[in-house]
Every structure is written in structure tokens, then in C-alpha cells.
């Protein structure tokens, strides 16, 4: 029988009405009421209509996306086949652990805010950013980035990476990628170079926070973004969540692991459709969709059940 994976998106595609979209079920509404005290001030007052000027600030974006995915899962889980694997891209890896039961919802939101705060503080001394690069191999992209004191943040595929560098050399690195043959270089709407050594201090401090709030064993295995290995044990999960803040994410290997474990049906919780599109680019025969493609979130459950039956 085909296996089923749930994918938790990262930052970059959030919208002001994200929470309003996830508020349609009684369970999601109860969850929002229960965790409201754990939300940052800019989100607590009107979570369903976030100020666009705050939307891409880490301190708002990370708890916002965590809350959205928790609420979406609260709606979906009662009627959804149990996933065989959970995986998340960047921030999504932490959120996947929350969906798997490693943290209670209030704890997860507290930790998402702590993660954002530690990342912002670590980046304050050395402003940095990320860019998507297409058309170069990871080896070539790493060499070019290193020449500008940058690093690879995420390896998406054989000709698709995300690179991070200090703001003072951002344009220089962009030009260097183009000169090396990149077909596309696009700045990303994030305020710092996550998954690079620029945030080593944040990894250390978030690791301390996780030792104080140690995850409980997940109900479903969660992929580590750094190693692409399925994680069951709390201590390795905590280490992986801390390390990935300043270490290259191998999303290419994560996709390979999911497919090799028999996953044929993939539901991306969003925001956005990037992860489901990456899966389809990797394996056009897979069934992969994002919640963003459904008019009604609850309709996704019926689609998953249908596709699992079809993929048998």
C-alpha cells in the first residue's frame, strides 16, 4: 500500500488572512482560543487579519505559520488517514514536530517565538539574507558562495539551491552566480540567512531552550532536514531542530527519503504550493497537492483517501 506524507511549508508565502482560512472548524476555533495567550502582541489581537507591515517579520511570521499549521491539522486530522511520515521545510520542520505531538500547542507557539527571537538576535550583528539560485549544481553554487563568504542554506535539487550571505556582499554574490551560469537568481523575502553559520549563536541558544522543554516522542516519525533521516527519539529531534537553524538543509535528500519509503501521496499544509510542486518535479507519478488548492480545507481529507486507494 502506498504511504502518505504531510509536508509543512516554511516562511515566504504567508498572507494577512492565513488564520482566517484555517478557522472554519470548531476544533480549530477552540485551539485558537486556547493558545491566544501564547501569541505575540502583533498577532494576538487580530490573528485573522495580520498587519501586512508585520507579516514577514520573524517575530510574527514564525508563530503565525506554526499556528496556521496547527489549526489546519486540527481540522484535518479527525477525518484524515494517519500519515506515515511528517516532513517540514525550514521552519516547517519544527512545525512538523508539533503536529506529531512532540510539543503541546502552547509550548509549540512559545518555542516558535523563541526560535524567531534567537534568530533575530544572532543576525543583528551581521545582517544577512537568502537568495534562490537555479541552473547551478550544488557543488558549483557552494564554491561560488564561498568566494563571497556565503554558504548554501538549502539544497533543493541538482540545479536548485538557496544560498545565504552577508548583506554587504549580497549583490556581489548575486552577480557571481549569474557569471557562473545561473539561469535565475532571486532574493527571498526573509530577513536573515537561516541554515547558515551566520546563525550559529541561535542554534546554541535554541538548543538550550529545547533542553528545558524536551520534546515528547512523536506519534509519527519526522524527517530531519539536515540528515534526511526519520526521527523517533526526543533527544535527536531536539538536536536536529537546533542544528538546522545554522546548518544546510538537504531537502533534496528529504524528498529522496520520502519516496524511497514508499510515500506516493503528499499533502502540503501551506502556506504556498512550493513543496508539492517540488515533489511532482521529482516524481511526476506521485499525487501531491497543497491545501491552498482546495476551496474547503476539509475536502483535502477526501482527496487523500481517494489517492491512497488509487495508488494501491
TrEMBL record:
Provide the alphabetized UniProt keywords: Acyltransferase, Transferase
InterPro entries attached here? Ac_transferase_dom_sf (IPR001227), Acyl_transferase_dom (IPR014043), Acyl_Trfase/lysoPLipase (IPR016035), Mal-CoA-ACP_Trans/PKS_FabD (IPR050858)
Q: What class of enzyme is it?
A: transferase
Q: Which GO terms describe its cellular component?
A: cytosol
In the record, biological process GO terms are:
fatty acid biosynthetic process
Q: Which SMART domains match?
A: PKS_AT
EC number(s) stated in the UniProt entry for this protein: 2.3.1.39
The segment(s) forming the Malonyl-CoA:ACP transacylase (MAT) domain are: 7-307
The cross-references to SUPFAM superfamilies, in alphabetical order and at most eight, read:
FabD/lysophospholipase-like
Tell me any Pfam family this protein matches: Acyl_transf_1
Q: Which GO terms describe its molecular function?
A: [acyl-carrier-protein] S-malonyltransferase activity
| Protein name in the entry | Polyketide biosynthesis malonyl CoA-acyl carrier protein transacylase PksC
Native source species: Fundidesulfovibrio magnetotacticus
- Identify the taxonomic lineage of the organism of origin: Bacteria, Pseudomonadati, Thermodesulfobacteriota, Desulfovibrionia, Desulfovibrionales
Its gene name is pksC
